[in-house]
Amino acid sequence: MATVTSIATALMDTLNTALADVDYASIDEYLPSVKTEKVALLVTPAGQADVGRFQSFASNLELTHRIRCEFWVKIDKADMAATMSRAREIPLDAMRILLSNDGASYELAPNTEMESSTTDGPVTTGNASYLVAALIVPCWNQVEVI
Q1: Degrees (nearest 5) of the Cα angle 80, 85, 87?
Q2: Contact call for residues 92 and 69 (beta carbons, < 8 A)
Q3: How many CB atoms lie within 10 A of CB 128?
Q4: What angle, 0 to 180 degrees and rounded to 10, lies between the N-to-C axes of helices 4-18 and 80-100?
Q5: Residue 72's closest CA among 5, 19, 146?
Q6: Domain that holds residue 128
Q7: Is 114:134 a contact under the CB 8 Å cutoff?
Q8: Which range among 49-63, 69-83, 89-103, 128-142 shows the weakest confidence by mean pLDDT?
Q9: CATH code, 51
Q10: C-beta atoms surrounding 91 within 10 Å
């Protein structure tokens, strides 16, 4: 039986493997590592939403999870065009990757939408600034309740 944490881990592993410029990934941190040189992928419970639907005539609960994947794109002042482009494109690249791997170690919720948004401006933590592109990924699983 899948847990929300195992689904979040599967999303992180899939994206971390497929996106070459992700140099740090975690489900346990809410800020990027100081070692991040390009992109940190953080899959945190912040902004997560879950819905459970009981299926009559069955002993299963169908769960839909809206899991937030954050891409912290480190600002490179020497190449702002590349920084802006990457922050703009990384959610779309992630959508393609997740769709092409659907069913391997997670299941995207059918008839739902992935949503992305990017911070209005830089987020500074420590001595580094980032653009944060968030992708909401709807996944689903079933659990037996009886």
Answers
A1: 95
A2: no
A3: 16
A4: 120
A5: 19
A6: 4-144
A7: no
A8: 49-63
A9: 3.30.2000
A10: 19
Residues 6+ apart with CB under 8 A from 87: 71, 73, 118, 131, 133
**Average predicted confidence (pLDDT) for the chain:** 93
**DSSP, residue by residue, 111-144:** T---EEEE-SS-EEETTEEEEEEEEEEEEEEEEE
Total number of domains in the chain: 1
Residue 65 CA to residue 97 CA, distance in Å, equals 18
pLDDT digit string, tens, across residues 18-66: 999 999 999 999 888 878 999 999 999 998 999 988 876 667 888 999 9
pLDDT computed for residue 146 by the predictor: 66
The one-letter amino acid at 62: E
| Encoded tokens for 124 | 């500074």
Rounded to whole angstroms, how far apart are CA atoms 73 and 121? 12
How far apart are the C-alpha atoms of 24 and 11, rounded to whole Å?
14
At residue 83, φ and ψ (nearest 5 deg) are -60, -50
